[in-house]
Design goal:
Chain B: It comes from Starmerella bacillaris (Yeast). The structure holds 2 protein chains of 2 kinds. Chain A folds into 2 domains: 147 residues, Gyrase A, domain 2; 131 residues, Beta Complex (RNA Polymerase Alpha Subunit, Chain A, domain 2). Chain A contains 5 helices and 18 strands. Chain A starts with a strand and ends in a 5-residue tail after the last helix. By secondary structure, chain B is of the alpha+beta class. Chain B has a single domain, classed as 2-Layer Sandwich (Gyrase A, domain 2). The termini of chain B are far apart. The chains are: A alpha+beta, B alpha+beta. The interface between A and B is large, with 77 and 65 residues.
Protein backbone atom coordinates (compact mmCIF):
# COMPACT_ATOMS: atom_id res chain seq x y z
CA UNK A 1 0.00 0.00 0.00
CA UNK A 2 1.23 3.46 -0.89
CA UNK A 3 0.43 5.83 2.00
CA UNK A 4 -0.93 9.26 1.22
CA UNK A 5 -0.38 11.98 3.80
CA UNK A 6 -1.41 15.61 3.91
CA UNK A 7 1.61 16.85 1.96
CA UNK A 8 3.69 13.82 1.05
CA UNK A 9 3.50 10.16 0.10
CA UNK A 10 5.37 7.27 1.68
CA UNK A 11 6.02 3.57 1.14
CA UNK A 12 6.16 4.10 -2.60
CA UNK A 13 8.43 1.36 -3.97
CA UNK A 14 7.74 -2.32 -4.56
CA UNK A 15 9.41 -4.53 -1.97
CA UNK A 16 8.27 -7.97 -3.12
CA UNK A 17 11.72 -9.39 -3.74
CA UNK A 18 13.44 -12.45 -2.22
CA UNK A 19 15.62 -11.63 0.76
CA UNK A 20 13.82 -8.38 1.55
CA UNK A 21 11.93 -9.71 4.57
CA UNK A 22 13.24 -12.56 6.74
CA UNK A 23 11.01 -15.62 6.51
CA UNK A 24 9.03 -14.32 3.56
CA UNK A 25 9.31 -16.00 0.18
CA UNK A 26 9.00 -13.61 -2.70
CA UNK A 27 10.66 -15.82 -5.31
CA UNK A 28 8.97 -15.80 -8.70
CA UNK A 29 6.19 -18.37 -8.84
CA UNK A 30 4.16 -18.50 -12.02
CA UNK A 31 1.28 -20.44 -10.46
CA UNK A 32 1.05 -17.92 -7.63
CA UNK A 33 1.05 -15.08 -10.14
CA UNK A 34 -1.64 -16.82 -12.23
CA UNK A 35 -3.96 -17.18 -9.25
CA UNK A 36 -3.31 -13.64 -7.97
CA UNK A 37 -3.55 -11.80 -11.27
CA UNK A 38 -6.93 -10.57 -12.41
CA UNK A 39 -8.37 -8.49 -15.20
CA UNK A 40 -11.67 -6.71 -14.70
CA UNK A 41 -13.12 -4.80 -17.63
CA UNK A 42 -15.71 -2.16 -16.76
CA UNK A 43 -16.11 -0.50 -20.15
CA UNK A 44 -14.92 -1.45 -23.60
CA UNK A 45 -16.22 0.14 -26.78
CA UNK A 46 -14.87 0.81 -30.25
CA UNK A 47 -13.09 3.94 -29.07
CA UNK A 48 -12.74 3.96 -25.28
CA UNK A 49 -12.04 1.51 -22.53
CA UNK A 50 -11.63 1.28 -18.80
CA UNK A 51 -10.27 -1.85 -17.17
CA UNK A 52 -8.32 -2.98 -14.11
CA UNK A 53 -5.17 -5.05 -13.97
CA UNK A 54 -4.92 -6.44 -10.44
CA UNK A 55 -1.91 -8.23 -8.97
CA UNK A 56 0.84 -7.15 -11.34
CA UNK A 57 3.97 -5.05 -10.78
CA UNK A 58 4.17 -1.41 -11.79
CA UNK A 59 6.99 -2.17 -14.23
CA UNK A 60 4.58 -4.22 -16.33
CA UNK A 61 1.66 -1.81 -16.15
CA UNK A 62 4.04 0.96 -17.17
CA UNK A 63 5.58 -1.13 -19.96
CA UNK A 64 2.14 -1.78 -21.47
CA UNK A 65 1.30 1.92 -21.24
CA UNK A 66 4.58 2.96 -22.82
CA UNK A 67 4.25 0.43 -25.64
CA UNK A 68 0.67 1.48 -26.41
CA UNK A 69 1.73 5.11 -26.76
CA UNK A 70 5.05 4.72 -28.53
CA UNK A 71 5.44 1.29 -30.09
CA UNK A 72 2.12 -0.08 -31.34
CA UNK A 73 2.15 0.79 -35.07
CA UNK A 74 -0.55 2.72 -36.87
CA UNK A 75 -1.03 4.45 -40.22
CA UNK A 76 -0.71 8.20 -40.77
CA UNK A 77 -0.02 10.58 -43.61
CA UNK A 78 3.75 10.93 -44.09
CA UNK A 79 4.19 12.66 -47.44
CA UNK A 80 2.11 15.43 -48.97
CA UNK A 81 2.48 16.47 -52.60
CA UNK A 82 0.98 19.92 -52.97
CA UNK A 83 -0.09 20.89 -56.48
CA UNK A 84 -1.94 24.02 -55.56
CA UNK A 85 -2.44 25.79 -52.27
CA UNK A 86 -3.72 29.33 -52.47
CA UNK A 87 -5.23 29.24 -48.99
CA UNK A 88 -3.80 31.32 -46.14
CA UNK A 89 -2.41 28.17 -44.50
CA UNK A 90 1.21 27.66 -45.48
CA UNK A 91 2.15 24.42 -47.24
CA UNK A 92 4.19 23.06 -44.34
CA UNK A 93 1.52 23.87 -41.74
CA UNK A 94 -1.12 22.26 -43.93
CA UNK A 95 1.06 19.16 -44.36
CA UNK A 96 1.61 18.95 -40.61
CA UNK A 97 -2.16 19.17 -39.99
CA UNK A 98 -2.84 16.45 -42.54
CA UNK A 99 -0.29 14.19 -40.85
CA UNK A 100 -2.20 14.45 -37.58
CA UNK A 101 -5.58 13.42 -39.07
CA UNK A 102 -6.49 9.98 -37.60
CA UNK A 103 -7.07 7.45 -40.36
CA UNK A 104 -9.19 4.32 -40.38
CA UNK A 105 -6.68 1.97 -41.98
CA UNK A 106 -6.04 -1.47 -40.59
CA UNK A 107 -2.29 -1.41 -39.72
CA UNK A 108 -2.03 -5.12 -40.49
CA UNK A 109 -2.98 -4.45 -44.09
CA UNK A 110 0.24 -2.50 -44.74
CA UNK A 111 3.88 -3.57 -44.83
CA UNK A 112 6.68 -1.71 -43.05
CA UNK A 113 8.94 0.66 -44.87
CA UNK A 114 12.28 -0.59 -43.61
CA UNK A 115 14.36 2.53 -44.17
CA UNK A 116 13.20 5.06 -41.58
CA UNK A 117 13.87 8.05 -43.81
CA UNK A 118 12.54 6.32 -46.93
CA UNK A 119 15.43 7.68 -48.94
CA UNK A 120 16.45 4.50 -50.69
CA UNK A 121 13.16 2.73 -50.55
CA UNK A 122 10.24 2.97 -52.88
CA UNK A 123 6.64 3.33 -51.87
CA UNK A 124 4.50 0.52 -53.23
CA UNK A 125 1.01 -0.96 -53.09
CA UNK A 126 1.99 -3.02 -50.06
CA UNK A 127 3.24 -0.18 -47.87
CA UNK A 128 1.44 2.99 -48.93
CA UNK A 129 -2.12 4.28 -48.97
CA UNK A 130 -2.84 7.40 -51.01
CA UNK A 131 -5.43 10.08 -50.31
CA UNK A 132 -6.32 13.02 -52.47
CA UNK A 133 -7.68 16.38 -51.39
CA UNK A 134 -9.23 18.57 -54.08
CA UNK A 135 -11.22 21.55 -52.81
CA UNK A 136 -12.01 24.80 -54.57
CA UNK A 137 -13.90 27.58 -52.85
CA UNK A 138 -16.41 29.49 -54.95
CA UNK A 139 -19.22 32.01 -54.52
CA UNK A 140 -22.59 30.60 -55.54
CA UNK A 141 -25.01 32.66 -57.64
CA UNK A 142 -27.21 33.24 -54.57
CA UNK A 143 -24.27 34.82 -52.71
CA UNK A 144 -23.53 31.85 -50.42
CA UNK A 145 -20.02 30.41 -50.36
CA UNK A 146 -19.26 26.85 -51.42
CA UNK A 147 -16.45 24.88 -49.75
CA UNK A 148 -15.64 27.56 -47.21
CA UNK A 149 -14.38 24.86 -44.85
CA UNK A 150 -12.09 22.00 -45.72
CA UNK A 151 -12.89 18.96 -43.56
CA UNK A 152 -11.14 15.64 -43.06
CA UNK A 153 -13.95 13.97 -45.00
CA UNK A 154 -12.69 15.73 -48.15
CA UNK A 155 -9.66 13.42 -48.06
CA UNK A 156 -10.57 10.70 -50.56
CA UNK A 157 -8.86 7.34 -50.76
CA UNK A 158 -7.21 6.80 -54.15
CA UNK A 159 -6.21 3.18 -54.69
CA UNK A 160 -2.99 2.51 -56.57
CA UNK A 161 -3.25 0.32 -59.62
CA UNK A 162 -4.10 -3.18 -58.42
CA UNK A 163 -4.45 -2.12 -54.79
CA UNK A 164 -7.33 -3.56 -52.79
CA UNK A 165 -7.68 -2.80 -49.11
CA UNK A 166 -10.76 -3.76 -47.21
CA UNK A 167 -12.39 -2.08 -45.49
CA UNK A 168 -11.71 0.91 -47.68
CA UNK A 169 -9.42 3.44 -45.96
CA UNK A 170 -11.17 6.58 -44.67
CA UNK A 171 -10.65 9.18 -42.00
CA UNK A 172 -11.73 8.35 -38.45
CA UNK A 173 -13.60 11.60 -37.91
CA UNK A 174 -15.25 13.39 -40.81
CA UNK A 175 -15.60 16.80 -39.23
CA UNK A 176 -12.00 17.71 -38.40
CA UNK A 177 -11.40 21.19 -39.80
CA UNK A 178 -8.23 21.21 -41.90
CA UNK A 179 -8.34 24.68 -43.49
CA UNK A 180 -10.63 27.62 -44.25
CA UNK A 181 -10.94 29.09 -47.73
CA UNK A 182 -12.27 32.27 -49.34
CA UNK A 183 -13.82 32.36 -52.82
CA UNK A 184 -11.18 31.77 -55.49
CA UNK A 185 -8.83 29.90 -53.17
CA UNK A 186 -8.01 26.30 -53.83
CA UNK A 187 -6.25 23.32 -52.30
CA UNK A 188 -5.20 20.43 -54.51
CA UNK A 189 -2.88 17.78 -53.13
CA UNK A 190 -2.09 14.09 -52.80
CA UNK A 191 -0.94 12.45 -49.57
CA UNK A 192 0.78 9.16 -48.92
CA UNK A 193 0.16 7.39 -45.64
CA UNK A 194 2.51 4.75 -44.24
CA UNK A 195 2.94 2.59 -41.17
CA UNK A 196 4.87 4.11 -38.27
CA UNK A 197 5.28 4.13 -34.50
CA UNK A 198 4.55 6.83 -31.94
CA UNK A 199 8.21 7.10 -30.93
CA UNK A 200 8.93 8.47 -34.42
CA UNK A 201 6.06 10.94 -34.43
CA UNK A 202 2.96 11.31 -32.25
CA UNK A 203 0.75 11.09 -35.35
CA UNK A 204 1.57 7.36 -35.47
CA UNK A 205 0.40 6.75 -31.89
CA UNK A 206 -2.76 4.62 -31.99
CA UNK A 207 -4.02 6.04 -28.70
CA UNK A 208 -5.32 9.47 -27.80
CA UNK A 209 -4.90 8.55 -24.13
CA UNK A 210 -3.34 5.55 -22.49
CA UNK A 211 -2.95 6.01 -18.78
CA UNK A 212 -3.35 4.20 -15.49
CA UNK A 213 -3.94 5.24 -11.92
CA UNK A 214 -3.68 3.25 -8.72
CA UNK A 215 -6.81 2.12 -6.91
CA UNK A 216 -7.50 4.47 -3.99
CA UNK A 217 -8.14 3.01 -0.55
CA UNK A 218 -9.80 4.83 2.33
CA UNK A 219 -9.63 3.25 5.78
CA UNK A 220 -11.69 4.63 8.64
CA UNK A 221 -9.67 3.96 11.80
CA UNK A 222 -11.95 5.46 14.48
CA UNK A 223 -15.70 6.08 14.61
CA UNK A 224 -16.92 9.30 13.03
CA UNK A 225 -20.43 10.31 14.05
CA UNK A 226 -23.13 12.95 13.78
CA UNK A 227 -22.36 16.20 11.95
CA UNK A 228 -18.82 15.00 11.33
CA UNK A 229 -20.12 12.02 9.39
CA UNK A 230 -21.83 14.31 6.88
CA UNK A 231 -18.75 16.50 6.69
CA UNK A 232 -16.64 13.39 6.14
CA UNK A 233 -18.89 12.26 3.30
CA UNK A 234 -18.62 15.69 1.66
CA UNK A 235 -14.83 15.44 1.63
CA UNK A 236 -15.11 12.84 -1.13
CA UNK A 237 -16.72 12.82 -4.58
CA UNK A 238 -20.33 11.65 -4.80
CA UNK A 239 -20.80 7.93 -4.30
CA UNK A 240 -17.53 7.21 -2.53
CA UNK A 241 -18.87 7.37 1.03
CA UNK A 242 -22.33 6.36 2.25
CA UNK A 243 -23.81 7.04 5.69
CA UNK A 244 -25.00 3.87 7.38
CA UNK A 245 -26.55 4.17 10.87
CA UNK A 246 -25.12 7.66 11.23
CA UNK A 247 -21.60 6.48 10.46
CA UNK A 248 -19.67 6.90 7.23
CA UNK A 249 -18.98 3.79 5.20
CA UNK A 250 -16.65 3.63 2.19
CA UNK A 251 -18.68 2.03 -0.61
CA UNK A 252 -16.83 2.87 -3.84
CA UNK A 253 -13.22 4.02 -3.46
CA UNK A 254 -12.76 3.66 -7.24
CA UNK A 255 -14.67 6.93 -7.67
CA UNK A 256 -12.30 8.80 -5.36
CA UNK A 257 -9.99 11.37 -6.89
CA UNK A 258 -7.66 11.29 -3.84
CA UNK A 259 -8.00 15.01 -3.36
CA UNK A 260 -6.80 14.66 0.27
CA UNK A 261 -9.50 17.13 1.33
CA UNK A 262 -10.30 14.93 4.34
CA UNK A 263 -6.74 15.38 5.66
CA UNK A 264 -7.18 19.16 5.89
CA UNK A 265 -9.69 18.96 8.72
CA UNK A 266 -8.33 18.58 12.28
CA UNK A 267 -11.45 16.69 13.46
CA UNK A 268 -10.51 13.73 11.25
CA UNK A 269 -6.90 13.58 12.37
CA UNK A 270 -5.92 10.01 13.22
CA UNK A 271 -9.36 8.77 12.21
CA UNK A 272 -8.77 8.13 8.53
CA UNK A 273 -5.95 6.73 6.44
CA UNK A 274 -5.64 7.30 2.70
CA UNK A 275 -3.67 5.03 0.46
CA UNK A 276 -3.42 3.52 -2.96
CA UNK A 277 -3.05 -0.14 -3.81
CA UNK A 278 0.32 -0.62 -5.40
CA UNK A 279 -0.73 -3.58 -7.55
CA UNK A 280 -4.18 -2.44 -8.71
CA UNK A 281 -4.05 -0.44 -11.94
CA UNK A 282 -7.07 1.29 -13.42
CA UNK A 283 -6.32 1.70 -17.10
CA UNK A 284 -8.03 4.21 -19.33
CA UNK A 285 -7.40 3.86 -23.05
CA UNK A 286 -8.89 5.94 -25.85
CA UNK A 287 -8.20 4.86 -29.40
CA UNK A 288 -7.79 7.24 -32.32
CA UNK A 289 -9.96 4.93 -34.40
CA UNK A 290 -8.07 2.36 -36.46
CA UNK A 291 -8.06 -0.28 -33.73
CA UNK A 292 -10.21 -0.95 -30.69
CA UNK A 293 -8.58 -0.31 -27.29
CA UNK A 294 -8.67 -4.07 -26.63
CA UNK A 295 -6.67 -4.72 -29.80
CA UNK A 296 -4.17 -2.02 -28.87
CA UNK A 297 -3.70 -3.45 -25.38
CA UNK A 298 -3.26 -6.99 -26.68
CA UNK A 299 -0.73 -5.72 -29.21
CA UNK A 300 1.22 -4.05 -26.40
CA UNK A 301 1.37 -7.34 -24.50
CA UNK A 302 2.52 -9.13 -27.64
CA UNK A 303 5.14 -6.43 -28.26
CA UNK A 304 6.63 -6.86 -24.77
CA UNK A 305 6.75 -10.62 -25.27
CA UNK A 306 8.42 -10.07 -28.64
CA UNK A 307 11.13 -7.93 -27.00
CA UNK A 308 11.93 -10.79 -24.63
CA UNK A 309 11.91 -13.47 -27.32
CA UNK A 310 14.23 -11.40 -29.51
CA UNK A 311 16.73 -11.23 -26.63
CA UNK A 312 16.32 -14.96 -26.01
CA UNK A 313 17.45 -15.61 -29.56
CA UNK A 314 20.53 -13.40 -29.17
CA UNK A 315 23.85 -15.18 -29.10
CA UNK A 316 26.23 -13.84 -26.45
CA UNK A 317 29.99 -13.78 -27.18
CA UNK B 1 4.81 15.12 -58.49
CA UNK B 2 1.57 14.57 -60.31
CA UNK B 3 -1.77 14.56 -58.58
CA UNK B 4 -2.90 11.33 -60.18
CA UNK B 5 -0.43 8.88 -58.71
CA UNK B 6 0.06 5.81 -60.84
CA UNK B 7 1.91 2.62 -60.13
CA UNK B 8 4.76 3.85 -62.28
CA UNK B 9 5.78 6.08 -59.35
CA UNK B 10 5.67 3.26 -56.86
CA UNK B 11 7.92 0.37 -57.72
CA UNK B 12 7.78 -2.79 -55.65
CA UNK B 13 10.21 -2.60 -52.73
CA UNK B 14 11.45 -5.37 -50.49
CA UNK B 15 9.19 -6.49 -47.66
CA UNK B 16 11.50 -8.93 -45.88
CA UNK B 17 11.67 -8.86 -42.11
CA UNK B 18 14.91 -7.65 -40.59
CA UNK B 19 16.84 -10.32 -38.73
CA UNK B 20 18.08 -9.70 -35.18
CA UNK B 21 21.34 -7.78 -35.38
CA UNK B 22 24.47 -9.46 -34.03
CA UNK B 23 25.09 -6.61 -31.59
CA UNK B 24 21.54 -6.40 -30.21
CA UNK B 25 22.96 -7.67 -26.92
CA UNK B 26 26.62 -7.76 -25.91
CA UNK B 27 28.48 -8.42 -22.66
CA UNK B 28 30.38 -5.39 -21.40
CA UNK B 29 34.02 -5.78 -20.35
CA UNK B 30 34.57 -6.82 -16.75
CA UNK B 31 32.53 -9.98 -16.40
CA UNK B 32 33.50 -11.96 -13.27
CA UNK B 33 35.75 -14.91 -14.09
CA UNK B 34 33.20 -17.39 -12.72
CA UNK B 35 30.41 -15.68 -14.67
CA UNK B 36 28.49 -14.77 -11.53
CA UNK B 37 28.45 -11.07 -12.35
CA UNK B 38 28.15 -9.35 -15.70
CA UNK B 39 26.86 -6.23 -17.38
CA UNK B 40 25.01 -6.37 -20.65
CA UNK B 41 24.53 -3.72 -23.29
CA UNK B 42 21.20 -4.01 -25.07
CA UNK B 43 20.62 -1.93 -28.18
CA UNK B 44 17.33 -0.19 -29.02
CA UNK B 45 15.74 -0.88 -25.66
CA UNK B 46 14.65 1.51 -22.90
CA UNK B 47 12.75 1.59 -19.61
CA UNK B 48 9.96 -0.50 -21.14
CA UNK B 49 12.05 -3.66 -21.22
CA UNK B 50 14.68 -2.46 -18.71
CA UNK B 51 12.36 -2.09 -15.76
CA UNK B 52 10.27 -5.21 -16.43
CA UNK B 53 13.37 -7.35 -16.95
CA UNK B 54 15.01 -5.93 -13.84
CA UNK B 55 11.90 -6.82 -11.83
CA UNK B 56 11.75 -10.38 -13.20
CA UNK B 57 15.48 -10.98 -12.56
CA UNK B 58 15.26 -9.54 -9.03
CA UNK B 59 12.48 -12.05 -8.32
CA UNK B 60 15.08 -14.81 -8.66
CA UNK B 61 16.39 -15.86 -5.18
CA UNK B 62 19.80 -16.73 -6.69
CA UNK B 63 20.29 -13.13 -7.78
CA UNK B 64 22.02 -10.77 -5.39
CA UNK B 65 21.69 -7.61 -7.47
CA UNK B 66 20.07 -6.50 -10.68
CA UNK B 67 19.79 -2.99 -12.03
CA UNK B 68 19.49 -1.23 -15.35
CA UNK B 69 20.46 2.16 -16.63
CA UNK B 70 20.24 4.26 -19.72
CA UNK B 71 23.77 5.72 -19.78
CA UNK B 72 22.94 8.63 -22.04
CA UNK B 73 19.61 9.77 -23.50
CA UNK B 74 21.22 10.42 -26.89
CA UNK B 75 22.42 6.83 -27.21
CA UNK B 76 19.72 4.30 -27.97
CA UNK B 77 20.89 1.56 -25.67
CA UNK B 78 20.43 0.24 -22.18
CA UNK B 79 22.82 -1.34 -19.67
CA UNK B 80 21.74 -4.24 -17.47
CA UNK B 81 23.84 -5.37 -14.48
CA UNK B 82 23.34 -8.78 -12.89
CA UNK B 83 25.20 -10.22 -9.89
CA UNK B 84 24.31 -13.63 -8.50
CA UNK B 85 25.25 -15.39 -5.25
CA UNK B 86 27.33 -17.80 -7.35
CA UNK B 87 24.88 -20.68 -7.70
CA UNK B 88 24.04 -19.64 -11.28
CA UNK B 89 25.77 -17.42 -13.82
CA UNK B 90 24.56 -13.96 -14.72
CA UNK B 91 23.69 -15.21 -18.21
CA UNK B 92 21.52 -17.98 -16.76
CA UNK B 93 19.78 -15.43 -14.53
CA UNK B 94 19.11 -13.26 -17.57
CA UNK B 95 17.71 -16.18 -19.52
CA UNK B 96 15.44 -17.18 -16.65
CA UNK B 97 14.29 -13.55 -16.41
CA UNK B 98 13.42 -13.51 -20.09
CA UNK B 99 11.49 -16.80 -19.83
CA UNK B 100 9.55 -15.51 -16.82
CA UNK B 101 8.78 -12.28 -18.65
CA UNK B 102 7.32 -14.23 -21.57
CA UNK B 103 5.24 -16.25 -19.08
CA UNK B 104 3.83 -13.06 -17.54
CA UNK B 105 2.83 -11.76 -20.98
CA UNK B 106 1.11 -15.06 -21.76
CA UNK B 107 -0.88 -14.94 -18.51
CA UNK B 108 -1.88 -11.29 -19.01
CA UNK B 109 -2.96 -11.94 -22.60
CA UNK B 110 -5.00 -15.04 -21.73
CA UNK B 111 -6.75 -13.44 -18.75
CA UNK B 112 -7.56 -10.34 -20.79
CA UNK B 113 -8.94 -12.43 -23.66
CA UNK B 114 -11.09 -14.44 -21.22
CA UNK B 115 -12.60 -11.28 -19.74
CA UNK B 116 -12.99 -9.77 -23.20
CA UNK B 117 -14.90 -12.81 -24.45
CA UNK B 118 -17.19 -12.84 -21.40
CA UNK B 119 -18.59 -9.51 -22.61
CA UNK B 120 -19.51 -8.67 -19.03
CA UNK B 121 -18.95 -4.90 -19.33
CA UNK B 122 -20.43 -1.68 -20.67
CA UNK B 123 -20.16 -1.81 -24.46
CA UNK B 124 -21.60 1.58 -25.37
CA UNK B 125 -20.01 5.00 -25.12
CA UNK B 126 -21.06 6.88 -21.99
CA UNK B 127 -22.01 10.33 -23.20
Amino acid sequence: MVDIHRDYVSNVSSTDFPGNFPGEDHAWDLEKFKSNFNVSISQLTERTSNFDLIGIDTSFANAFRRIMIAEVPSVAIEKVFIEQNTSVIQDEVLASRLGLVPLLVNPDSLDWMVDPLHLNEAHNVENTVAFSLQVKCERNSDGTIKNENVYAKDLKFVPFEGQTISPEPTVAYEDILIAKLRPGQEISLTCWAILGVGSDHAKFSPVATASYRLMPQISILKDIEGEDAIKFQKCFPNGVVDIVDGKPKVVDPRKDTVSREVLRHPEFEGKVKLGRRRDHFIFNIESTGAMTPAEIFLKSVAALREKATVLQSCKLE
Amino acid sequence: MSGDVSMADVSVGNTEEIAVEDDKMTILPGMASDGSAASFKIKDEDHTLGNTLRYMIMKNPDVEFCGYSIPHPNDNHMHLRIQTYGEITAIEALQKGLRDLVDVCDVVENKFRDEYNKGDYVQEEIA
